[in-house]
Amino acid sequence: MAKKKLNPSSSKSANDKATRDNRGNGDELHQVAGGRHPPLTTNQGLPLSDNQNSLKSSPRGPTLLEDFILREKITHFDHERIPERIVHARGSAAHGYFELTKSLRKYTTAKILTETGVKTPLFTRFSTVAGGAGSIDTPRDVRGFAVKFYTKEGNWDLVGNNIPVFFIQDAIKFPDLIHAVKMEPDRGFPQAGSAHDTFWDFISLTPESMHMIMWAMSDRAIPRSLRMMEGFGIHSFRLLDAERKSTFVKFHWRPKLGLQSTVWDEAVKLAGADPDFHRRDLFESIQAGDYPEWELAVQLFTEKEADAFPFDHLDPTKLIPEELVPLTVIGRMVLDRYPDNFFAETEQVAFCPSHVVPGIDFSNDPLLQGRLHSYLDTQLSRLGSPNFHQLPINAPKCPYANQQRDGHMQMEVPKGRVNYEPSSLDPTSPRENPAGFHSAAVVDTDGAKGRIRPASFADHYSQARQFFRSQTKYEQAHIASALVFELSKVETLHVREAVVGHLRHIGEDLARRVADGLGLDALPPAPAAAVKAEESKVSPALQIIGKMKDTLKGRTVGILIHDGSDATTIKALKTAVEAAGGAVKLVAIHVGGIKLSDGKSIAADGQLAGTPSLVFDAIALVLSDAAGKQLAKVAAAVDFAREAFGHLKGIAADEGAQAVLKAGGIAKDAGVVDTKDTKGFIKAAKTRQWDREAKLRTLA
Ligand code: HDE
Fold first, then answer.
1. What is the reported pLDDT for 4?
2. Residue 85: CB within 6 Å of ligand 1?
3. Hey, which residues are catalytic here?
4. Containing domain of residue 665, as a range?
5. Which of 82, 84, 86, 88 to probe ligand 1 with, by most ligand atoms within 8 A of CB?
6. Ligand 1: which of 87, 129, 165, 394 to mutate, most ligand atoms within 8 Å of CB?
7. CATH label of the domain that carries residue 648
8. In this structure, are 593 and 635 located in the same domain?
């Protein structure tokens, strides 16, 4: 058949005809897109006449080795991937700026922290930790929160997480932690999940991780949106004044939209409904001009003050409660431009905690000290050349110069004969300057060298206990239930028991709830603790629910409609939601041609089968009586309502929609209102119906 169609012939004109036929009408290709296209060329600039067919010995003959155009294209394609990050492989990023609103002149010489009103460009990448680059956005996991400030004095990278503490106290344990959490090496699963034996085995033998475990099992690890997460530098850093006197500092990012998380059942289902849920949200909000924003706040304290804390601030498993050292807001970050190219920017960006500017320095936190080595090292293999700093996303936006030369992919052409220092031959060659970077003038009086864990790091439970005690009862139930979920996936009984044993130090009640959830016969013994948990003050700042904002900004309401839906009701809901700062999306069985009550035909934003209520913050059902009866028999429509109810979301339903609610077994509560009650609906949409949950599912 093909032979006949192509009509092979040795004559030139017949060959040309065969080529055109095979790619459709070649001329059309160029016209369809419109515009004035530059010529398509090889990487050497050779203009191409045909990008559809490889060079063959005859129309149906083998491809010729001579086809350098085919080989160049395929070879480049074959090498398009670079190694993904060993951790934080899955990430989404955006450009933006930082604006300082309060000067820290008293504490530091760093221009970025002293020049108010200046807008410093930056690039921020959010990530999950355990999963690969192609994994889902909503696993239970810590989120990376890395910011690269392109300051006048060089790049400053604040490479943090959305949780203010970490699992381990010393960098030497990091490879073990990550090996344990990633997919198990023999079976190659689970992907992007901590609910498996190796992770909990490691945790059960690492009591210092217990505080972080409380955070990781809380809803902080299943955020609603990247725009609704806090960020933390975790470690103490130092700010240095002109005399090199240092003040300790902890950095905090606080989202303008407030903190919000999903509920676990929702996070799990979102993984299937939209694996790119967070990335899409970041992209869409920036495209809509709804720019994500955070405040930057600091906790400042002296060495003397630190000495009086009931914990060691150099221990990264500890935080400084806001009640002890309050936060001072010093500026804001706005993300206003999505990257033009994912690979060139989001994938090739190289963050490094050792990128600081004059006036900022490190503390002796042993986790931070190890990080100062790791990032540059990993980037050498990930990006493949010591010149990765020349990539546009990594290059400083201020002048930079030194005598480093050559290496793979050198993009610059350094001039002159002087590639060393000191030198006298070139008056323009770069020199050191006393105003440049200095380390803090610290006198170490700590004692002898050794592989030592200081005694001040020995209390593993007090802050874990404080965290748990500070949560609302709803959040406590989520933590206990997350522990039950994760440990139920652990096959080894002694690992489950060992973890529950540790929980007893955090709270007997918590341990009991988890033991019951696991069906353990008795509470396992608590392991010996070097330091017993102290009863400390509760800190409401550690909650999520307490930090949700009374706003619909950044939230979306999904309205399920069908032929005959009441146009006035849809309009009234849309007006109310938009007035409260939210967005509305219409969902229907077919995306096009829905005839409303006013006879007008409109399009939906999403097809019901592919747009479950999971992707919305609240829903409304606006259906005629006939449509209500019809959709009560459509599983996707019933699920739309039932899942929103199960995920504690606000629901507005009109008369016709009652049939769908009934089919979903949805009982009336404060969050289920009539569509006419727009005020009540907006109130319900802004939050979750926490009291509903106990009636719906068994929580630990
Ligand atoms: Fe990282 N971490 N990390 N980390 N980390 C990396 O660097 C490492 C730690 C964090 O969006 C890697 O370029 C060690 C804490 C973020 O590109 C690697 C230790 C915190 C990102 C690395 C830690 C972080 C990374 C992998 C223990 C919160 C993603 C790829 C000593 C303060 C940055 C890369 C991005 C990435 C090492 C612990 C945050 C391997 C050795 C604590 C946000 O170098």
1. 41
2. yes
3. 88, 161
4. 550-696
5. 88
6. 87
7. 3.40.50.880
8. yes
Rounded to the nearest angstrom, the distance between the alpha carbon of 584 and the centre of ligand 1 is: 37
574 and 677 assigned to the same domain? yes
Q: Is 86 in the pocket of ligand 1 (CB under 6 A)?
A: yes
Asked if residue 12 belongs to a domain, the reply is: no
Atom 39 (ligand 1) nearest CA: 160
Q: Are residues 204 and 313 in the same domain?
A: yes
Whole-number pLDDT of residue 33: 55
Residues 607, 484 share a domain? no
- Ligand 1: atom nearest CA of 127 is 11
Quote the ligand 1 centre to 87 CA distance (angstroms).
7
CATH number at residue 340: 2.40.180.10
Q: Whose CA is nearest to atom 24 of ligand 1?
A: 160
Total tally of structural domains belonging to the chain: 3
Among 545, 573, 592, the domain boundary falls at 545
The structure tokens 């599912």 sit at 697
Tell me, yes or no, whether 46 lies in a domain: no
Q: Decide whether any atom of ligand 1 lies within 6 Å of the 353 Cβ.
A: no
Distance from residue 362's CA to the centre of ligand 1 (Å): 16
Decide if 556 contacts 582 (C-beta within 8 A). yes
In whole angstroms, what is the distance from residue 315 CA to residue 235 CA? 8
Instruction: Point out the domain boundary residue: 505, 520, 545.
Output: 545
Mutate to test the pocket of ligand 1, among 158, 220, 371, 378 (most ligand atoms within 8 A of CB): 371
453, 229, 500, 235: which is closest to 363 by C-alpha? 235
DSSP designation for 407: -
121: in domain: yes
Side chain identity, residue 141: D
174 ligand 1 Cβ < 6 A: yes
pLDDT of residue 443: 78
Residue among 247, 252, 361, 362 nearest 306 (CA) = 247
Contact 95, 339 (CB under 8 A): yes
* 595 plus 642 within the same structural domain: yes
Q: Are residues 476 and 569 in the same domain?
A: no
The reply to whether 113 falls in a domain is yes
Indicate the residue type of 333. M
Can you give the pLDDT at residue 23? 44
Between CA 243 and CA 250, with CA 248 as vertex, the angle to 5 degrees is 140
Q: Is 352 helix (H, G, I), strand (E, B) or coil?
A: coil
- Decide whether any atom of ligand 1 lies within 6 Å of the 355 Cβ: no
CA of 603 to the centre of ligand 1 (A): 45
Express each pLDDT in 458-468 by its tens digit.
Answer: 999 999 999 99
**Are residues 561 and 531 part of one domain?**
no
Is 618 exposed, middle or buried, given 0-12, 13-18 or 19+ CB atoms closer than 10 A? buried
The token duo for 648 is 């504690």
231 Cβ closer than 6 Å to some ligand 1 atom: no
Residue spans of the chain under pLDDT 50: 1-32
- 277 and 170 belong to one structural domain: yes
